[in-house]
Amino acid sequence: MKKSFLKRLGAIALSLTVLLGMAPAGMTANAEEACGEGNHVAGADLYDANYNPCTGGYSSDFYQCIYCGRPVDQNCQEIEEEKGIGHHTPGEKHEADYTSCGGGFKEKWYECSVCGRPVNKDGQELEGFEPTGSHIPGSELHEADYTSCNGGFKEDFYECSVCGQPVNKDGQPAEWVEPTGSHIPGSELHEADYTSCNGGFKADFYECSVCGQPVNKDGQPAEWFEPTGSHIPGSELHKADYTSCGGGFKEDFYECTLCGQPVDKDGQFVDWYDRSGMHQPGTVLHKANYTPCDGGFKSNYYQCSVCHCPVDKDGQELEWFEPTEAHKPGSTLFKADYTPCSGGLKSDYYICDVCYCPIDKDGQYVQWSEPTEAHKAGSTLFKANYTPCGGGVKSDYYECTVCHCPVDKDSKEIPYEDCTANHTPGSELIKATYTVCGGGLKSDYYECTVCHWPVDKDGFELIQFMGSGVHDLEVIAAKSPTCDEEGNIQFWHCKVCGQHFKDANGTDYIEDMDEVILSKLKPEITSGLQQVPQGLENKYASVTAIKDALLQAALNSDQTLSTSNSKSVLLDVELKVQAPDGTWTLVTPENFPAEGIEVLLPYPDGTNMNDYSFVITHMITSGDKAGEIEVLHGTPEQGGIRVKFTSLSPVMITCKEKVKEASTVKPADKPAGNPSDKPSKVTTPQTGDTSHLTFWFAVLLISGISIICLTLKKRSAIRK
Fold it and tell me: Residue 192 — φ and ψ, nearest 5°?
């Protein structure tokens, strides 16, 4: 209220001053005389107190008399200047910064730690040198950056190549224009980032949507807090990365464990050096990667062969464009993939349909977490997979057993090497693989002849598009393995994209079909029986007793068999199944396939499928029928006798030689040649009758003639 009143009073005084200026000379002289006698008139502007212990000053806010310019208080009473101690205390050291166009200090100088004025090492106040020349505009034209809320330059400008000040094309200082409006908070809320060693914002903040400055929800500049502690170097030493074209750090450095800033072993900042040379474009042309939600480069680019930053063909750094839209989460929720040795995402996430970055359901980036443990090298050594066009690992490597990244024998991660050449498309155009549910490549493509990556006709890598994740699933029923065929556990197959899943919702993708395939059963068949099987101890005293019982069952089932015309072999048949870890275990009665299995039993030595007949007898060893013997039907095949079992061992094969049937051999056709040649004599096998056929033909002929004669004689007698 007082200040407002004083401002009004100052305005009145200013008006009086103007009137006095218009008055006759005698009137003005009287006013100055009055001021000299202590009757000051305060101006409208209130100045801040400027007292400091070094040079003194005024300890309270003050006005200036509109006549004599002396400092006065609100009552127009003159204020006395207070004396200082008379000397400065040098604080932070600065390098000489004199330039011919900007002036400055020609020697090293310090800031007084009390008042901030420039002083020398002895605390004597320094005066800067005035410039003696003109500014020289640099070659890079900067775009005007004026915003209504933050001010700036309304015209494009250069930086002076000598002193760095903004200038126009003629070397005149560019005009900086004050802001005229307020900040407008953006929609994204940033988390507070204050650390005791680096300072920062203690409260969450937004970025102004106009100028990018950090502001609070009301558009007021967010308060930045100074650090209060020291940096704490981490344990990992990073190599110096300075390049002449990209700048960097010229000495090895650590990262502060609190704020991540580069520091030396004592926690002091490590200097970053500007570049001193031009970029050198590599030979590989990369495709533009801009997306509206993730930003990027809008034109094709090369990577500098020295510092790897993106440049054009002339070595000029390319502009990275900011995103202009929000991310669009896909429909598939992916599992968190964090591992302690490789880092990753600690929460489930979606993939943006546009740029494929990991985001949450609201389209916000999901934070990547750093690793906290060392890798653990596996036992298998893999071959190097580097190709000039696809990049890769240049040395043989192991896979970490936790995260599967490539590591050396000491579990140190092996860096991935970037490609150095463009892809070479093959000659065959392959059809697009995209499906609405499974994703894939949306355009026809070629395979690179070197690394087999999908590329377009120009050799640019193609993007694998994500699908909706909504599959058209059919269930593949579980099937038990047999000795001849593999089985499988129940799984689901998408009729659209062909992918396989462990669940009916299509979320647990099967990467390797070995996860669901059950290996063929492996029967192991050995001659003989080492001991009485468990479950038969109370029924049979010995293996011999079991063998005799099986043989007797075979003799009873086929009356043509006898101990004299047959032979038998006792077999011990075991069935094994492969476990997930690759080991083979015995199939027990409890998990024996309910539908039974078919086993190919080997032929006993000296027998075959054509000349022998077989009887298969099997003794049941478990359950209520333990000790009973069953006769099984066997089908002779080229490789053995196929028999279906519902349980195994012991098994006996009893066989006898088949009776050979007699056969007649006809004389062979007379061969072409000399008609006088006589046919070969053929001996017909005898059937047990040693009589000659000629004799019996003669008897038959005489009997026929006799019957005819008797008949004629009888007819003659009747006529008479």
Answer: -55, 140
